[in-house]
Amino acid sequence: MEKIYLSDSGPKVSPAVYGFYRWNEEDLSQYKMERIIDLCLGLGINTFDHADIYGGYKCEEMFGEIIKSKRIKREDIVLFTKCGINLPHPSRPEIRIKYYDTSKQHILKSVENSLRNLRTDYIDIFLLNQLDPLSDLEETAIALHKLRESGKVKNIGVVNFSVFQHQLLSSYLRIPIVTNHIELNLLNTSAFDNGQIDYIKQKYMRPLATAPLAEGQIANSIDKTPLLIRRKLEDLAPKYNAHIESIAVAWIVKLGALPLIGTTDEQRIKNISLAFDLDLDRQDWYELYEASRGSL
Length: 296
Hints:
- With 296 residues, the chain is α/β, with parallel strands linked by helices.
- It is built from 13 helices and twelve strands.
- The strands form three sheets. It has an eight-stranded parallel beta barrel. Strands 1-2 form a two-stranded antiparallel ribbon. A two-stranded antiparallel ribbon has the order 6-7.
- Helix 5 links the parallel strand 8 and strand 9.
- It starts with a strand and ends with a helix.
């Protein structure tokens, strides 16, 4: 895959990104993670998305062990990580309830922990995972500027920010926000209706589409709308000589979005990567869009 700019401010990333957001503690084995990383790199996916909470707060550390082993070179990959959501877990007895924290103190502490866990001196893109309404945004911005100036963080992004939240944080920053992770797939097109897609494009960014295959529902759900979409995808499969999942992701790619892969199913990862070989006809794209809205 040819690397592309995530925004007009950079950086360059692979057109698909692999994220560990669906990994839980049962998924955590170094062998499995190495297989997924090797598969992604073989497909041209060199960009990996982490967060402090993924895999019961263990994914970053395991990935860092792989970097330490020198099986992959740090300079050959692009690393995202994020903080903001705190989840109860046996390793975090002080956390009683899921809550958000984007305070200056929490951000700085989280970045230091991520750098240590990932065995790296810098994070290519650091993201705020949701926006904490209790945080002093001036202090939040100071923390982000400090991290950028220190070189520990190269770029800033956000996750699931509404248009107003995006605008609010931007008003405090002197540095650009380079991405917003949003859920976008044929079963969730709310980003068209709430303005997220339009605002992201206005800011010359590419949206990162989480759950590009709706966590397998497009292929497997027997509910009315997924069935309608699946029938349309199956109708199109002979025309494009492609798997229905590849066509579903090509629908996202046509928008200029980057699919954020979360599955551990190796064939599904391959299906997503093959989406970049497809160029959907405009009318086919709109027929799928109508199907997603239950209109066909």
